[in-house]
Amino acid sequence: MDMTIEQQPPPESSGPPKQPIKNALFDPIVAELDLRVFRRKLNVLPDNFNPLDPKLQVDDFVRLGLPPRPSDADALRLWLEMIPPGLKIMPPFEEGNLGVYMLRADMAVGVTRFSADQGDEDVTQARVGWIPRGRLSSSRNWSGAAIFANHGDRFSQVIASWTVPEVKAGDGDGPWVCSTWIGIDGFRRWMKSMPQMGTTQIVGDTGERDDAGNLLPQYFAWWQWWLRGRTIQVPVVFPTATIAPGKKVYCCVTLLPPDQPDPGDRHHVQFFLRVDGTGYPVMLAPPPTNDPADIDGGRRVPASGASAEWILERPTALHDSPNGNVKEGDLFPLPEFASAGADDFAASLAADPDPMVVASIAALPITPSTNFRTPLKLRMMEHRRDPSRVAVIAKPIEAKDGKVTIAYQD
């Protein structure tokens, strides 16, 4: 089908970002984020900053808004690419620059739906600590690659770079949406939370408007700490980061060690986005449990570090699309793209699986990194009519070393 959709241009880098129309359903989310997001002003990155200075410790990097430095050679190489000389740090929500949470009301990301096709392994039944070597599984909305920590290890940091794919109208009537992201955990049913971040690409009208009635950007970067069982959870947009097809982005998710970013803190996560010459750090506490008995919200659900993944996803629609083709709760149709994937990927391991005693990822003996040498690969399936069949619509054609490539299947 040859269908041309007029693309909305990405927002200009100057001037205030367009804000979505306020949604009363988001009030509890905003109130919770206000309590969890770290807002204290960060130190200024020195002009003569040397990221390899051996005197720099984990807390030095955190105070500068940078991901802690890994020691493994593969992870360090990618980390250095992410932090080039002259990098400008722009915290979206620091003290004195509180900003506005830009929440997308049109989609939800993070929940995987696995296929029950005969012959495909259901990864939710895979043994903990076991890495399926070369196995291929099926999902209705995920395609990509995942790795699992062996018993006694946990992932403490995952870094990836990729080129934002250019998307076009896919099969059917749209709107078409895909998200590309990295995450820690979320892959097995017992994993209760998943910090994740990435980019989203849209073709067509999902119904999201700003206060002036204009479509929101159709390419954007976001972060989210997904919590299993939560009814409403949406990606939080990096409001001033300009995302466009062909741009290279670097994303890093770090499980911070104890007493970071402040003394007494536990289980905080740092999200770090680098696009063009600017880095955008966000740090926040883990989400509160969904348990109704936790009245004061004092119990938290930290990440366990059991898996790390790079995923291309079909998000779930949170309301009907304007053209009526996509209903609330449906998966968005997949847009067409030549290929998408991680140009590079590294996940650092820490030796202590106890979530209360997270070893510093700066210590050389406990920070080997791993990539996609032995991944679980995921292909995306869709049920189609006329004739009725299950079709592969996206699959990894390469997933090894630090690279994963997803191909669109027409």
Can you give me a brief rundown of this structure?
One of its GO terms (biological process) is proteolysis. The chain is built from three helices and 20 strands. By secondary structure, the protein is mainly beta.
Q: What is the mean predicted local confidence, pLDDT?
A: 82
Q: State the CATH superfamily name.
A: Peptidase G1
The SSE string, one letter per element, is HHHEEEEEEEEEEEEEEEEEEEE
Global geometry? globular
* Percent of residues in beta strands: 25-35%
GO molecular function: glutamic-type endopeptidase activity
GO biological process, one term: proteolysis
InterPro entries: ConA-like_dom_sf, Peptidase_G1, Peptidase_G1_sf
Pfam family, one: Peptidase_A4
What does this structure look like?
This protein has helices at 27-36, 58-63, 73-82, and strands spanning 88-89, 102-103, 107-108, 136-139, 142-148, 154-163, 176-184, 193-203, 219-227, 236-237, 248-255, 269-275, 278-284, 307-313, 316-317, 339-350, 369-370, 376-384, 389-400, 403-408. It has one domain (24-118, 129-408): Sandwich (Jelly Rolls), CATH 2.60.120.700. The strands form two sheets. The chain has an 18-stranded mixed sheet that branches. A two-stranded antiparallel sheet has the order 3-15. The protein contains three helices and 20 strands. Mean pLDDT is 82; it is low at 1-16, 116-134 and 353-367. The longest helix has 10 residues, at 27-36. The protein starts with 26 loop residues before the first helix and ends with a strand. It is mainly beta. 6% of the residues lie in helices and 32% in strands. Residues 1-21 are annotated as: Disordered. It holds the Pfam family Peptidase_A4.
